[in-house]
Amino acid sequence: MAPALVQFLTGQSASPSTFTNPVTAGNLIVVYIETNKYNATGITISDNKSNTYVAASPVIGYSGTPLKGGAIYYAWNCN
Fold first, then answer.
1. In the prediction, which pLDDT does 43 show?
2. Exposed, middle or buried, 44 (CB in 10 Å: 0-12/13-18/19+)?
3. b/e map of 10-21 (b: 16 or more CB within 10 Å)?
4. Do the Cβ atoms of 22 and 7 come closer than 8 Å?
5. How confident is the model at residue 61, as a pLDDT?
6. From residue 37, how far is each of 43, 53, 56 by CA, in Å?
7. Model-level pTM?
8. What is the pLDDT of residue 65?
9. Residue 54: its pLDDT value, please?
10. What is 25-44 written as a DSSP string?
11. pLDDT, the chain, mean
């Protein structure tokens, strides 16, 4: 089966965030987090299905006022 975009969320400013439709077993969830810290540490992603989220990249700092950072996490083969 070819990969397909099933659903997405944008502009979520707080947690928890909820998908419109249930996540189906085998799905991939990708999360991008923007922080107000250039070198944020201790970021934790979790959900109510006990999926394991892995960092796809370290927090990458970029300039702005204030300095900000972003990171990508994913959960593969979701429950």
1. 80
2. exposed
3. eeeeeeeeeeee
4. no
5. 77
6. 11, 21, 18
7. 0.76
8. 66
9. 92
10. TT--EEEEEEESSTT-----
11. 81
Kindly state the tokens that stand for 72.
């990508």
One-letter amino acid for residue 10 of the chain: T
Contacts of 43 (CB under 8 A, 6+ apart): 33, 35, 55, 59, 71, 73
Q: What is the mean pLDDT of each run of 10 residues along the chain (79 residues)?
A: 83 74 88 75 83 86 74 89
Hey, what amino acid is at 47? D
Structural tokens at position 66:
């204030």
Instruction: Look up residue 65 and give its two tokens.
Output: 């006022």
Let me know how long the chain is: 79
Look at residues 4, 30, 7 and name the one whose alpha carbon lies nearest to residue 20.
7
Instruction: Single out the residue of 13, 72, 15, 71 nearest to residue 48, CA to CA.
Output: 15
